[in-house]
Design brief:
The chain is built from 8 helices and 4 strands; from the N terminus they run βαβααβαβαααα. By secondary structure, the protein is of the alpha/beta class. It folds into 2 domains: 145 residues, Response regulator (Rossmann fold, 3-Layer(aba) Sandwich); 41 residues, no CATH class. Helix 1 links the parallel strand 1 and strand 2. The longest helix has 24 residues.
């Protein structure tokens, strides 16, 4: 059984929807998974957004939890950590670098292929090189800078836009994006 942890900012919109939707979708496929969600910038006990709950209700999915702050225990518990944005992923890995091999954005994990993974790895290496050179007062060479820009253009966005404060239709669009990625995620888990 896979243990999956979804991460967003406040754990009141995207990650609780992903958590509840994955539970339901996995059950419909006869797949057993353990699922949690947490936020990188929240406190325990905040209510899930009314629009998020309504979006789930319209899909006949219940969610009765409240927000949870990200903890080291949750990171250790998980087999796969799926963030809603690249920024969440970077923040999580700053606090828990040991989770690097199991942390992805949801879309990165769902839609990954070998070529895309190689591009991402190369881009992350160039960012690391850029930060090191900047810290030492240097900069990337023209060739490195051009390659970085090329990779940035080629790699699609893996972020799921935060609907917080938006309309119910914003939440529905977000849920459809999450649902499509979760379907791909379940396809991958079924093949493993």
């Amino acid at each position: 059984m896979k243990r999956i942890l979804f991460i967003c900012t406040g754990n009141t919109c995207r990650s609780p929807m992903a958590e509840a939707m994955l539970r339901r979708m996995a059950a419909q496929r006869g797949l057993t998974v353990a699922v949690r969600s947490a936020g990188v910038s929240t406190v325990d006990g905040l209510p899930v957004s009314a629009h998020a709950l309504e979006t789930l209700r319209r899909r006949e999915i219940e969610h009765k939890s409240s927000s949870r702050a990200l903890t080291g225990e949750a990171v250790k518990w998980s087999d796969i950590i799926l963030t809603m944005t690249s920024s969440h992923k970077r923040g999580l890995l700053q606090w828990y670098p040991e989770a690097i091999d199991k942390t992805f954005t949801l879309k990165e994990f769902a839609y990954q292929d070998e070529r895309l993974l190689a591009d991402i790895e190369e881009l992350e290496g160039l960012y690391t090189e850029l930060h090191m050179k900047q810290a030492l007062g240097g900069q990337l060479s023209d060739a490195e800078r051009n390659r970085l820009l090329e990779l940035e253009r080629r790699i699609p966005s893996f972020d799921i836009v935060d609907p917080f404060g938006g309309s119910l239709s914003n939440y529905d669009s977000c849920a459809m994006e999450i649902e499509a990625a979760l379907s791909k995620l379940l396809d991958k888990l079924t093949k493993r």
